[in-house]
Amino acid sequence: MIYCFYCFLSSPAGSTTRDPGALGTRAPGVRAPRSDTWGRTASRGWGGPGAVPATGVSRVGRSRAIPGVRAGPALSRASCHPGPPLRASPLRAMAAVAWGRCLPRVWLLRRTGPGCGRHYRAALCAELKHPLAIEEVASRPVRPHEVRVDVHFCGVNFADILVCRGQYQEKPQLPFTPGMEFSGTVLETGTDVSTVKEGDRVIGVSRFNGMAEECIIDHKTLWQIPEGVPLREAATLPVSYVTAILALEHRACTRPGETVLVTAAAGATGLAVIDVATNVLQAKVIAAAGSDEKCRLAMRKGAQSIVNYSQGSLKEAVRKLVGSDGVNVVIDAVGGDVFLEALRSLAWEGRIVVVGFAGGTIASVPANLLLLKNVSAMGLYWGRYKEQNFPVFSRILSSALQYCQQGRIQPHIGAVFKLEEVNDAFLHVIQRKSMGKLWQRPRKMCYVASEEKYRCPRVVACVRQQQQN
Known about the structure:
Distance between the termini: 56 Å
Shape: globular
Largest sheet: 7 strands, mixed
Radius of gyration: 25 Å
Structural class: alpha/beta
Number of strands: 16
Strand content: 15-25%
Oligomer: single chain
Number of helices: 16
């Protein structure tokens, strides 16, 4: 009987301490996140360290529990640092109980190895077409070829929204954490890893698990960030800039002096195409977007001409700019009628590269248009290069890092959201409010667009310091 009672006291599952950081407990006043429909989150706080209320407005029902996931405040790293197994003396345990005293938490936990007992917050998709929930998940030990990264920034891509709707090419098993690209610092490396070490600044390309405070990833899909490149800017490179370079250089073989038409020009990929085409390839860029504000942003980023295709025919607007000869290259991320008009705007032996369908409609290619002008229509799915031709993918990402270090490209950050505001970030993209890259910042303070938003001098100073980091 004494032995069984001791095992209960010394196991994490049996711990009854009221310490807010203990496993399986929730601090006083902390409420579980609640949500109802896509993109709408409760305005109550999450209660974890450093957590803030989300900006949603709806009153919603309690989120469902996910097996293996614990709700409540995140544990501090100091209290969860791996160490030797600790055991409580049976006599001391019995004495403490007999006197009505609570044993310290350190006597109640048994830790068996690296990663055991660690918890971190993550955005989880438990049901398709429903809002994400911020939950605590247990960290697992790293395998010999893996690296544990402390995530600082994670990109919000349209593909993340599609995968949470079940409409993406890849369909992860539920529940899963979205997030395809991130930047951060190395926390721990496996025994077979020699390419990075603890403390290194890295960017990573994951299979939908980056929207979390930590991420475990294969060391082959990590790249060290050069000196002078901030974590925030570095995290824009894996999806947007690799897509832009692959489309312009590898697929369309764009040459200096050629004219490039880019649709959805104010989006993350569109701005990256403008940046690379103008400042790296020395091409002329016509930026096409759906509003005057977005067109002005594209012009500021280096486009020589702009077209607002919500106000008339894209083909006619391009004809007025370049004449009947047309453009040499089109990078299209919209699809539908915009794609067809862009295709008709191509010059002799022009090339059009499809990188997405932000408009929601997949157009059929009229083969006679390809024949009449000897034009080429091709697609680009950047993720397949990571799987099918990794050397090309790695080389282009390394080139993007080099361009960024040299100052030849300047990534544009549209907005930054806290991890708790993941559904607001998704809604921002769905409502077409985004211009440039959106980011989630799992840790520290969040800032949006510019420091002028804040009136408090202390907050402004903090924002400036983070922008330097």
